[in-house]
Amino acid sequence: MNNFSPHMLKTFKECPKKYYYKYAAKISVPQKATPFEKGKKVHALANYYLRGDDITKLEKVLTSDETRVWNILKSNEFFQKTYVESEYNLSCKIGGFWVGGRLDALVKDGNNYYILDYKTGSVPQNPENDYQTMIYLLSAAKFLKTFDSLTFIYIDLKNNLNHKIEFTKEREKIYTEELIKICTQITSAQTFPSNPAGCKFCEYNKFC
Prior knowledge:
single chain, 6 strands
């Protein structure tokens, strides 16, 4: 049975050929890890911090830029809310397909719940229509079952901003239809055409 992540759906939408190489043929291409190191450190620190672990020693080895970003996250209003889960795998069945991902954190204020996603890089251009938003909100809604409100918060650490997308019945319908549509496209695909628009920065461009 297929289990689709937000990145899988986004990859197929951007370039079916890249999706084929990465997820069907399972061809792995080494990439430079440097651009992701800051994000990994911040996510790890956040997980330990929210769980109540002592992170004093870890904070001391952060670079000045990492410290700046970490302090922005620690002082964020949503990061201060009551802890529920962090680095948590959550999935749900939409139509005949399973979709899911790994939440950075789930917090609450009373019966109002917030999915937190920390971004040290760029936030999606249209976050309300991003597959991560769709999957996380639908999965969390089914996981929680009852709540007064459920909101996805992209915490933009680069610009110290919050981008909020609230779960509504209208969005639930739109998101469900869109996820079923693209999952059906993937599972029924006979060919995987390339999209030259993204070739310049694609890790598979040397042999595609």
